[in-house]
Every structure is written in C-alpha cells, then in structure tokens.
Specification:
- The protein has eight helices and eight strands.
- The protein is of the alpha+beta class.
- It has helices at about 1-5, 15-20, 60, 75-85, 125-130, 145-160, 165-180, 180-185; strands at about 25-30, 35-40, 50, 60-65, 70, 90-105, 110-120, 135-145.
- Strands 1, 2, 3, 6, 7 and 8 form a six-stranded mixed sheet that branches.
Length: about 190
Amino acid sequence: KAFNRNPNFYDRTEELNQYKLLHLSTHCHLKTTDNMLLFGTKKNQSNQISGFGGFPNVEKESIKIEGESYLDIYKTLCNRLTAEIGTLVSEIESIQAVGITYVDNPCLRGVDLDYLIELNETSDNARKQFKASAQFKRCLFTVEFKPTKIAAFIEGIYQQKREMSPYALGCIVAEIGGMYGMKEANIIPNNA
C-alpha cells in the first residue's frame, strides 16, 4: 500500500520490480436488482469515477489453514465495502470473481482482484441509502448493465473531461467479457 500512496515511491518502478513489490487490492462493481451498476466519485484519486473496494488488512483478514496464512477474500470485501457503502453491505446477495486487472501507472501501479457484487436492492434505494465517506462523494452514478450503455456512460465521462479509474475500466472489461463475450467487451473505450 505504501508504494501506491506515497509520492516518494511513484518513480521507483525499477526498484519495485527488482524486489518484486506490487500492491494487491480489490475492486468491486455493485449490481442492483434492476440491472444497474453503481459507481462513485473518488475523493482521494482526483475525482475519478470508480467502483468500490480497497487494500486488504492482512493482519485482520487472514485465516490459518494447516499452519499457512491465507487472505479471507469475503471478509476483505465486506470490510472494505462497509467503510465505503455502509449499510448496503447487508444487501449483498452474491459475490462473483470476474478477473484481475493490472495497472502500470506510477501512482496507481498494482493488481486488483475484480468482483461483481449483486445487491438485493434497487438502484434508487441504493442511491438514497448511500452516504459520503472518506473516499467517496455523496452522489452515485447508475448505468444499465449492458455493454452499449456502459460504453456510452464511459464516453460521456471522457467528453466531460473527467476520468474513469483504470481499475474500474479493467473490471468492466472483465465483467462484460465474462457475461457477454470479448467481442462486446472490446467496445468499452479505454482512454486511461
């Protein structure tokens, strides 16, 4: 985590590669009962449009099996999401692993494990329940979970001179590729 958030390490890619240091985080998109994806605006990442998730707390979220430590992904996801989406965590109906995204921007370098989380809640109710947090502004964006609608949403973000998180883009491509096929995933704009 320090290598991703500390400006002293942004330009030390060669050194990070030498020691094989790479952060691991989670990235989730929330899908509602009315087939909408929810996105927020990250306060701590230049107001990028993004999904939800974050770095695991290895000390608190690991489990031991036969003397070996493993990260409890379900616990990690729930803990990260509780801080970001609050009581909506109680509406989680299912969690699907959809892919892995690698980003090699100096200040965002690393790997995200990507998940699609289905909520037992409508998009309107989710928007009403959502509260601003340390990482997210109060407003949630919704977009229908269809490749053409998502592509238009992302194009609109770029036309407004805003940014989409590269991790969110990777997660979207993984979701669409898995649900609709790679031909559909290839229509997603990538201006990252």
